[in-house]
Write a structure and sequence with these properties.
By secondary structure, the protein is an all-alpha fold. It binds iron/sulfur cluster.
Length: about 230
């Protein structure tokens, strides 16, 4: 299968939505080019709104700092308190401290050294940390140019409604989407599908009448047939 459908979807989404780093904490954290900051941002953003993630990330930055050294020096209690607005602070703070320890002890405090070892090394090393799963690693990889398409809750819902995937597993949906979107656009596709999910293809009431993808959508076609 070629990438024609993915190109068509991406073209329409680009024409509909603007991407801004102020809407995604991981994008905002990436501006400094330090993958450790992005990793911390993505851990914080698990299972919470972007607004809460921005607040927690800002609090951690100002009260503790965003380097592995600062995080280890402050300790898990200080990290937990700082990121409380994002929820799940017990497990997230433990993951952040463990990631800081790994970064400092094995990579001299610079997570770029791990990124340079390639996708498989990053996956192996980081998924061994409790609280860091496939999606967190995929957002980190995609943020630094690796051709992966991270699947969050919006991407999952939109992919299944559009009929791009029938899988219910993370890896299955990612595999199906990576067959649709070319390697070089996968991070952008991830972000634009999130925008579509947040603003149009909402969980409870998708706004199909105003959706730029309605004529391509399996869910919409089924709704029309049932009407
Ligand atoms: S047509 Fe409706 S269900 Fe399909 S992607 Fe658009 S909003 Fe979602």
């Amino acid at each position: 299968m070629g990438y024609e459908l993915g190109d068509e979807i991406l073209g329409r989404l680009r024409g509909t939505f603007q991407l801004s780093s102020g809407e995604f904490v991981a994008l905002s954290a990436r501006r400094d080019g330090d993958p450790f900051r992005v990793l911390v941002a993505v851990i914080i953003s698990q299972n919470t709104s972007e607004r809460n993630a921005f607040e927690a990330f800002g609090r951690l930055s100002s009260s503790v700092g965003l380097t592995p050294e600062a995080i280890l020096k402050a300790g898990v209690d200080a990290v937990r308190e700082a990121i409380r607005p994002a929820g799940l602070q017990d497990s997230k703070s433990a993951a952040i401290v463990e990631a800081a320890r790994l970064t400092l002890e094995k990579y001299g405090g610079d997570l770029r050294r791990l990124l340079e070892l390639g996708e498989e090394a990053v996956r192996r090393e980081l998924t061994a940390v409790r609280g860091i799963g496939y999606k967190t690693v995929d957002v980190l990889l995609a943020s630094f140019g690796y051709p992966v398409l991270p699947v969050d809750t919006h991407v999952r819902r939109v992919a299944r409604r559009l009929g791009l995937s029938r899988s219910s597993s993370y890896l299955g949906i990612r595999r199906d989407l990576e067959r649709v979107f070319r390697p070089e656009v996968r991070f952008e596709a991830h972000l634009l599908l999130i925008k579509l999910g947040r603003e149009v293809c909402k969980a409870r009431e998708p706004r199909c009448a105003g959706c730029p993808l309605s004529d391509l959508c399996a869910y919409y076609r089924a709704q029309l047939r049932a009407a």
